[in-house]
Amino acid sequence: MSIGLKDIAQKTGFSVNTVSRALRGDSRISAGTTAIISRAASELGYIPNAIAASMRSSRSKTIGVVSADSANPFFSEVIRGIEESARHFGYQILLANTEESAKREADLVRMFLCRQVDGIIAMPTYDKDLDHADLYGRLSIPFIFAGRYLDGLKDHCVLHDDVEGQRSVVEHLLDKGHRNILCLAGPKKVSNTHDRLAGIREAFESRHLALEENYIVHAMGHIEDGYAITNHALNRGLEFSAIVCFNDMLAMGVLKSLHENNLSVPSDVEVFGYDNLYMSQFMQPSLSTVDVPKFRLGAVAMETLVAHIEDDSLPYAQRNVSTRLIFRESTR
Amino acid sequence: MSIGLKDIAQKTGFSVNTVSRALRGDSRISAGTTAIISRAASELGYIPNAIAASMRSSRSKTIGVVSADSANPFFSEVIRGIEESARHFGYQILLANTEESAKREADLVRMFLCRQVDGIIAMPTYDKDLDHADLYGRLSIPFIFAGRYLDGLKDHCVLHDDVEGQRSVVEHLLDKGHRNILCLAGPKKVSNTHDRLAGIREAFESRHLALEENYIVHAMGHIEDGYAITNHALNRGLEFSAIVCFNDMLAMGVLKSLHENNLSVPSDVEVFGYDNLYMSQFMQPSLSTVDVPKFRLGAVAMETLVAHIEDDSLPYAQRNVSTRLIFRESTR
DNA sequence: CTGTTTTAGATTAACGTTAATCCATAAAAA
DNA sequence: TTTTTATGGATTAACGTTAATCTAAAACAG
Lengths: 332, 332
Description:
The first copy, chain A, is an alpha/beta fold. Helix content of chain A is about 45%, strand content about 15%. In chain A, the strands form three sheets. The first copy, chain A, has a six-stranded parallel beta sheet with strand order 2-1-3-4-5-11, with helices on both faces.
């Protein structure tokens, strides 16, 4: 069958334990012995069995990542940050997408627990029926939320200020004289939607203006939603001179719809996205948006998680990454 | 510490083995006993230890997925197909990206072996220095390539006919009178680039026309490459009336560059992509492209892999998914 | 030269599960 | 009645590693 430590032990005459320690670089094994053992290992084509190691050491060196939406490159970037950082710390990633389903998220977390992950990074969804904060709260392993939060667990988060980010967008538009701003909000079960909506409201309040509720439309955040919602708004004769979107994917769909309806951007309608996807600068017109440091968000989350895995007495504390407005061709 | 089978055994009075069998639904345990045990398990908050199970049964119910480029939604779709199918068969996925680096790919495969995956699905890269076909050829576990191949291992593949697909695009353009077609090829180390280039050449040959080599430019396949290459081609005064791209991401960059240079699509230049990303229909103008059934590609790969895992005598045989041309606004 | 520490490695016992075997008891067949 | 065959479960031994403990020899201090 396959080669194990004992085969190396037999070949070299050392004990299994010595072989194990040597291959792990334990300082209690002399350099000479280590060299002999390493050579024997590679000669035999030894492949370490990480499962057995995990079992005995009760550390799997694996972390579970609960991502939200596989269709949105935003998450790909965050995950790349997680992955890169994980590699740096010697961790492996078990990844799965919830596609924004809270039930699926709960199943995933349970599956991760079965797999004995050392920690979890999640982009969580909340659902009134499933007590999600509780699901995480009961976890006996470290966990970090990246870019989203659940009430009561903010100290487990790496966040960016969505209220502030979205408010500055809308204030900017209001100050330029826009009064009818169509707002494409995100899915109702994620914290970002809530916060960005709050940002919009704050902006209107700060300028002592009223925000009409029929100017707010919720969507899942996919490109086709932006397209369909804009078409629909135009069809029902809604007047607007600017559109702010929950994310860049929505904004791309918006651009398509506006163009098909012979409205030019930004002269007829100004459009703002959110996230600053890499591809957004290549859209036609290029998208004005709010930059979120996606890669860094993932990297910081992983970094923080590892810190908690390696020191379980470390107190949790919210960390932040900063956003900034980016003005491109979709606004004046 | 944490609850194990023995705790349930203690509580119910049955043996550890009986508990194990009951929870796995073994038919040799009576329904009554199974019910008692299941209830006890959930009362105790039992979480099965998949690591221990893997270790003993030497089946991890995990498959390794080697994806290529995290920035391209093409792969996200394929992976979604893999994931969905994996879930159906009760498998978990260990996912990592090579970002088209053959070295990283080799490292990943080795890591997967350490983790005792039951099989591997890869989108492989080849490299003259690393004998990649050998790396896979020596594998003692089942493996499938999705959408790409390595020479000598085509029977491990689920493929689509790239030669045919790209040829039909170019033949179409040649038949419409285009003579100067700029070809944005893909990265040199992937089979698709090779095949699609062959398709282009076949098209020219079949129409008894010459393809000038300076009309072929290689790129990594990212959106910024399409943008930069088109700019560069225009700057050096290259004449062309059509552009065929290795993939849709490149084509998006192309569209941006052409627009900035006041060339209109399709009247001045016709543009073809490849892959039919979901978002391509929302580009401005929407992209003509070659549809590749990405989700299905992943699902079939997973399905095939599972068949091989469950029957190791099953002979490998190439499987195919079909592509088709899609005409949208970027062509006439 | 004795007693103590250090070094390098060996021994033993898990980790939590599943596979392989074995053993009752009861029902069915002879 | 005796023998077979299910049925339902118990016992025992791994799986390949690592942690905890122990031992012999060498090095060192007093």
